[in-house]
Design a protein that fits this description.
The complex is a heterodimer. Chain A contains 6 helices and 9 strands; from the N terminus they run βαβαβββαβαβαββα. By secondary structure, chain A is of the alpha/beta class. Chain A has one domain (3-194): fumarase (Alpha-Beta Barrel), CATH 3.20.130. Chain B has 2 domains: 6-26 and 70-151 and 281-296; 154-276, no CATH class. A 5-stranded mixed sheet of chain B has the order 2-1-3-8-9, with helices on one face. In chain B, helix 1 packs across helix 4 (90-107) and helix 2 (30-42) packs antiparallel against helix 3. Classes of the chains: A alpha/beta, B alpha+beta.
Chain lengths: 195, 299
């Protein structure tokens, strides 16, 4: 399993193609914070997100922040939420916005594998709950949109050495979550037989 | 210090609640730290080691920066043990817990998570209709109050499961349901954590017991040897599933299984599962009748 450093937003698709499920990745550049209500507004209520998401890395988060001025916030504690609730937005994020990476905890179910392969996207697994560490890797909150959805706004963070992340689903049809789940189901049959 | 009025005592409980909420979010108990360190020693997979290494580092960073361990400040849950002679009525204790929760949220400040369940509009500083949630136990021949704060993150709370097994399903049915639930939950509840299992009673009470179970000191065993044996057997079985840290595969799927039980109807066999993430936050205050407070991270 290889180790990589990737800077987002990406402009070269090879940066995504080189990543394989299980690889370790550290991210530089910019990360976009997004959550349930943000994506409900974008896709169910049809409002165009007021931020360029081309080649972007999206993080499933609703941060704890302190307001320090109009539209200006500083991070208090930023962590990551469960991704599975938001899986249905995967393909529209690729088609309508050109997003190339989604990062969260707990993984995406199998329905994400095909769109990720088709559109050259990856899913990064972060360690859920490790927010104290994650906060130290966020250098600044550079932009916030849709503040009325607080804390589920659209956030642009500048990050340094963000990670370590694990490639959970790659752009080649591989998913660690799928592999772990099928092995565990097989194992369950054996365990049930022992009860 | 002498307490002249219930108002003073109510303020003492409110102060304790405010302190407990923030403290529990920042400083996880030693028994949990030990269990996580032990998990890191046992884990052999590369991804599992990466996850557990990050978790241990995160706990250190939270200590150093005095930050929250996890950003999810949870839904505020308190368990109260009220002595029959404690000179403040539970109505006022509830008020104090609610006011303390709100004060901590505003003063720190903490993220406010509580919303109306239909409109999804935020209801204020982590309080709302029937929030915080309080479990009550009443203790005879005692004049003290123990308040335990258990902020419950949604990632793990969403992984709660209830099955009304039938008597013919037996203990095997209970075991199968717990195994199936935790495998199905995969990485979503932030494993490796504490699996709380409630058995017996009624449908609602089984889930109540499962929540009581996750609030116990980490790795303690049920007093009933039969139940204690079930706890150990379930933990061993779950750690064979290979789900691993954050569901990315590995040896350590759970830190411990805690089971609480109640007697039940002859035709009932309820089993409830309530998951507690690896950041299993809890903190306790022992409050005496005179309003003096002793804080306790290990209870």
């Amino acid at each position: 399993m290889a180790k990589h450093e990737v800077t987002f937003p990406v402009t070269d698709e090879r940066e995504i193609a080189k990543l394989r499920a299980g690889d370790e990745v550290v991210v530089q550049g910019h990360v976009i914070g997004i959550r349930d209500r943000t994506q409900i507004r974008m896709f169910d209520q049809g409002q165009r997100a007021p931020m360029d998401l081309t080649g972007a890395f999206l993080l499933h988060t609703a941060p704890n922040v302190r307001q320090v001025g109009e539209g200006r916030y500083e991070p208090l504690c930023i962590g990551t939420t469960t991704s599975a609730r938001m899986v249905r937005f995967t393909e529209p994020l690729a088609i309508e916005y050109g997003v190339r990476a989604v990062c969260g905890k707990g993984g995406f179910p199998d329905e994400a594998i095909e769109p990720m392969q088709k559109h050259g996207m990856v899913y990064f697994a972060i360690v859920g709950g490790a927010a104290a560490l994650e906060t130290t890797q966020i250098e600044a909150i550079e932009e916030v949109a849709w503040e009325d959805l607080m804390p589920e706004c659209l956030w642009r963070f500048r990050v340094k050495d963000f990670g370590p992340l694990t490639v959970g689903i790659d752009a080649h049809g591989n998913s660690l979550y799928h592999d772990v789940q099928s092995a565990a189901r097989k194992k369950l049959e054996e365990l049930y037989a022992r009860l | 210090m002498s307490i002249e009025t219930t108002t003073d005592l109510q303020h003492a409980v409110e102060d304790a609640a405010a302190y407990l909420y923030v403290w529990s979010l920042k400083d996880i108990p030693q028994d949990l730290r030990d269990a996580l360190a032990d998990a890191a020693k046992r884990e052999t997979s590369v991804t599992g080691q990466r996850v557990l290494g990050t978790i241990l580092k995160n706990v250190e960073v939270a200590d150093e920066t005095k930050n929250l361990v996890c950003q999810d400040t949870g839904i505020a849950v308190y368990t109260c043990r009220v002595g029959e002679h404690f000179p403040l009525h539970p109505t006022r204790i509830y008020e104090a817990l609610r006011d303390g929760t709100a004060r901590a949220t505003l003063e720190h400040p903490l993220r406010s998570n509580t919303v109306h369940t239909l409109t999804r509009e935020n209801t204020g500083p982590n309080i709302g209709h029937r929030v915080p949630i309080v479990h009550w136990e009443f203790i005879p021949d005692w004049d003290g109050l123990d308040v335990k704060c258990v902020p419950k993150g949604s990632g793990s709370e969403n992984m709660s499961f209830l099955k009304m097994c039938v008597p013919a399903d037996g203990v095997r049915g209970i075991k199968e349901f717990v195994l199936d639930s935790i495998v199905g939950a995969g990485g979503k509840p932030c494993p490796p954590g504490i699996v709380g299992v409630g058995i017996g009673g009624s449908a609602d009470y089984a889930m109540y017991l499962a929540k009581e179970a996750i609030a116990r000191p980490v790795g303690t065993r049920n007093e009933d040897p039969l139940v204690a044996q079930l706890e150990e057997e379930l933990a061993d079985l779950l750690n064979e599933t290979g789900i691993g840290p954050m569901g990315l595969g590995g040896d350590v799927t759970v830190l411990h299984v805690h089971v609480e039980h109640a007697d039940t109807h002859m035709t009932l066999n309820p089993v409830a599962v309530n998951y507690q993430c690896w950041a299993a936050r809890r903190a306790t205050a022992h409050i005496a009748a005179d309003g003096s407070v002793a804080y306790d991270r290990e209870a």
